[in-house]
Amino acid sequence: MKLNDTFTASEDVVSREVGGEMVLLDLASGTYFGLDPVGGRIWELLSNGPHSLSQVCDTIEAEFEAPRDQIEADILALFSDMGDQNLIVATPD
Amino acid sequence: MTDLVVGSARDQSPLTDNPYDRWIAPEGDEKALFYRTQTGFLVRFPDEVDFEIEGVGDRVTAWPVPEAKPDLAENLFNNAISPILGNHRGGLFLHGSAVEIGGNAIAFLGMSRSGKTTLAASFAKAGHPCLTEDVIELVERDGTYWLQPKPKVLRLFRDSADFLLGEQPHWEDEDEKQRVDVADALPFSDEARPLTRLFILANNEPDEVLLPHLGAQSALTELMPHSFILDVEDKARLSAHFSRLAQLAQRIPSHSLDYRREYAELPRVISAIVHSQTGTAPTHETE
């Protein structure tokens, strides 16, 4: 996975914000996932359309206080997890 | 509202299609199998009853097996088919029991054999009327969830019935629950009550009664498995149901509830919950 790879939220996943945190339900598998506020913001971006990892990092860097290299490492790990769980799908560049 | 038509007894013929969903009991047995038909659905309770559902539940026909007890079809309809059709039509039904405390309803959600019926009946024995023992029906009106009262019957194991009602003279099967009419023995509420708190039963059985608050995110993920869902492949309806549960999780405080499943422990559970509900200190928690 590279920073210019582009992803969007899977159409099989519905999400609701409750208590300031995001809960995802994968309708295909019936599995639930919880996201913290940063993860919830990332999910919001992907739900609105395709975003590259780099674009997501830009938004998170602008909205949350954290070093860029830490943001990139965390987002790469999160996207890898979400890809493994079929929560996100890769889109053409 | 769906009317039930009970057909004549017949054996369950093998079905060629694979079920699209199954309900599995905690011990691993298949409790219900869900199939599609040309006109709707067939829900099979193995060796018990087939339910043919036309459309979205406009008409339901039950076909009990020849060995089925006379009221089995009606019981399964009330405790399983009616709630799944209610959710399918946009209602809010959950698997659980409920009692009334001070004019408000509190609900206990749990899987089969988690102790929710005995818990609700114990509250009733302590003077807090039971609202329902197995199916929670919520009607939302002006931001309040009204928990609907259900018939004054309990489905109990022999030992629970002995504890709650005194020694029972006759029991059909010592290993199975039996439907007990408790209208004269325990108080039941006849009116819908506003739901003020949800307790989700855990089964780690700690030494002390534990009832930690659950955040809305945790509550939502705990609520969905306690729903009655007819069609797990109907994404539009699943999504809508998820939204209704999310709203419930936002509005109603939820707790996990765990305690030793011993009859002697139930007074402590009742005391802890009543005092958490009324905002006073429990009197039995540390005894």
Summarize the SSE layout with pairings:
The complex is a heterodimer of chains A (93) and B (287).
Chain A: E1 6-9, E2 13-18, E3 21-26, E4 31-35, H1 37-47, E5 51-52, H2 53-63, H3 68-84, E6 88-91
Antiparallel strand pairs in A: 1-5, 1-6, 2-3, 3-4
Helix pairs in contact in A: 2-3
Chain B: E1 4-6, E2 21-24, E3 30-36, E4 40-45, E5 49-54, E6 59-64, H1 72-88, E7 92-101, E8 104-109, H2 116-125, E9 130-132, E10 135-141, E11 144-147, E12 153-156, H3 158-165, E13 178-181, E14 193-201, E15 213-214, H4 216-223, H5 235-251, E16 254-257, H6 266-278
Parallel strand pairs in B: 1-6, 8-14, 14-16
Antiparallel strand pairs in B: 2-3, 3-4, 4-5, 5-6, 7-8, 7-9, 7-10, 10-11, 11-14, 12-13, 15-16
Q: Could you tell me the strand content of chain B as a percent range?
A: 25-35%
Number of helices of chain B: 6
Calculate Rg of chain A over CA atoms: 12 Å
Secondary-structure element order of chain A, N to C: EEEEHEHHE
Mean pLDDT of chain B, nearest integer? 91
Q: Low-confidence segments of chain A, ≥5 residues, pLDDT <50?
A: none
| Radius of gyration of chain B (Å) | 19 Å
Structural class of chain B: alpha+beta
Major beta sheet of chain A, specifics?
Answer: 3 strands, antiparallel
List keywords for this structure.
heterodimer; A: alpha+beta; three-stranded antiparallel beta sheet; 29% strand; B: alpha+beta; six-stranded mixed beta sheet; five-stranded mixed barrel; 25% helix; 30% strand
